[in-house]
From TrEMBL, chain A:
InterPro entries noted in UniProt: ABC_transp_permease, BCAA_transport_permease
Name under which the protein is recorded: Amino acid/amide ABC transporter membrane protein 1 (HAAT family)
Pfam families: BPD_transp_2
Cellular localization per UniProt: Cell inner membrane
Keyword Membrane: yes
Automatic annotation (TrEMBL), chain B:
One GO term of the biological process aspect: L-amino acid transport
Top-level taxon of the source organism: Bacteria
Entry similarity comment: Belongs to the ABC transporter superfamily.
Protein's name according to its UniProt entry: Amino acid/amide ABC transporter ATP-binding protein 2 (HAAT family)
The keyword Coiled coil is annotated on this UniProt entry: no
Signal peptide: none
Domain ABC transporter: 2-235
Keyword Secreted: no
Matches recorded under InterPro entries: AAA+_ATPase, ABC_transporter-like_ATP-bd, ABC_transporter-like_CS, BCAA_Transport_ATP-bd_LivF, P-loop_NTPase
PROSITE patterns membership: ABC_TRANSPORTER_1 (PS00211), ABC_TRANSPORTER_2 (PS50893)
Alphabetized UniProt keyword annotations: Amino-acid transport, ATP-binding, Nucleotide-binding, Transport
A Gene Ontology molecular function term of the record: branched-chain amino acid transmembrane transporter activity
Amino acid sequence: MDISFWILQLLNALQLSMLLFLLSVGLTVIFGLMHFVNLAHGALYALGAYIAASVAASMGYWAGVLVAPFAVAVLGLILYQFLIKRMRSSGPMAQVLVTFGLIFALLDITRLIWGDLALALDVPELLAGRVSIGGIEYPVYRFFVMAVGLVALVVLHLMLTKTQLGAMIRAGVDNDKMAACLGINVERLFFLVFCVGCALAGLAGAVAAPLLSVVPEMGVDILIPTLIVIVIGGLGSLKGAIVGSLIYGFVQTFGAVFAPQLASVMIYVLLALVLVMRPSGLFPAKGG
Amino acid sequence: MLDINELQSGYGETQVLFDVSLQVKPGRVHAILGRNGAGKSTTLKTVMGLLKAKSGAVEFDGEQISGRQPFKVADMGIAYVPETRDIFPSLTVLENLELTQRRFQHRGGDNGWTLEKIYEAFPRLKERAGNYGDELSGGEQQMLTIARALLMNPKLLILDEPTEGLAPIIVKQIHKQLSVLKQQGLTILLVEQNFGFATSLADDVSIIGKGQVVWRGSANEIREDKATQHQWLGV
Ligand SMILES: Nc1ncnc2c1ncn2[C@@H]1O[C@H](COP(=O)(O)OP(=O)(O)OP(=O)(O)O)[C@@H](O)[C@H]1O
Ligand SMILES: [Mg+2]
């Protein structure tokens, strides 16, 4: 195992982390603000992949990647208006059950529209090929996935820390009642954040699509890793989402190298350790 | 300015307010006194729309506000300083202030509150501008909640036990600030356990006992009325 092997693993870990970040950041901020777990977040990711693949088939990759987040955000908007808004005052158990049910509803809708066969989305010409780095050849497209995650991280960070809207969102996560008493329409903030979170899930699905085969179950498969990321990272914070994603990506990738037979349980052991030592995760939002 | 009429309210099944009626008149300071658990904070939370009234009415500036969401109540010109202070820990002092300053600046006109005026009135906040909400002392937090409320350039300022747990010197500063606000003609609704603090600021006083207004009168009257003090305040 020479240095190039480790570079390869490092890049794989980073790429997995960035994909998970795109998914977990929306889910965690939605939770922080609304105390609402949307278990169907993974299903939105799958829909993003399907929409991207379908659009790309006739109009090319870039159209697919642009349309998917918007389409998923519109779906989020519909879900919010007709379902989630009405459930805001019901307890966590009801919310978990309804969004859990939503997973299967969306899964079946996906099957009805696209069938059971896997779709494929080709890497666009611009991002095809490989670059050599540290003695290995690494696909350009995987760098692109990392870059998308990194850009999302930077943009979201600036938005949250430097703008008035970001301050309002942080205030709402800290204490939604007090934020409302200062004249902030917290419900409208929720709605906005929910739609952005859905768009990011759609974007994640779209950029992930060329890396895997697009099947209906992909949304269910990604849900558990995403939930682990936000529980390790701590609910409600951007920092938690990125740190949790990196931890998951690295433990998963390097775990498979060092102890292949333990790889699948290692992340759960880590999850348990974090929960024992810091029950609210590593970097939870400050309010409560 | 604020008319509370036969208000009944509570938490879920538990009713706390049975009959609260009181009028806050424009330009006056109205104090609500009462023992622990009498329902003072519950009254304020119901006015703000944080709790839903079971019955009764709240009118502000001639408009019915009961049943409105808190952000709409705030938007009408009511600023609220809760007893838990509720500074946002993830926001710096400056961000806490800007949260209201940026959205309500236009309400103040030429004589309205600005960041500069706030820093003049509370110099400590200027020194702490870059600190996060959870890095402040109790007194600094209290000044920040009051400052944040004033930057809404409200018509009515509601304060819930602003002196609770604070050192005497800070209580004095807050007293001075509130006296200035009173002189400037701001309408204030003040809940207090500190009898001396409340009666030296207030014009009118209502006493709540067991979820009802049991006494109303002027601050001078209650200062003289030892029997009522003894019965309802345990002073
Ligand atoms: N969140 C809550 N849920 C249920 N009951 C509550 C809640 N908050 C307060 N109460 C009850 O309502 C009653 C009135 O409480 P409230 O906070 O209005 O009293 P208060 O007059 O403000 O007292 P204090 O001077 O101690 O602040 C008390 O009996 C209290 O136990
Ligand atoms: Mg109280």
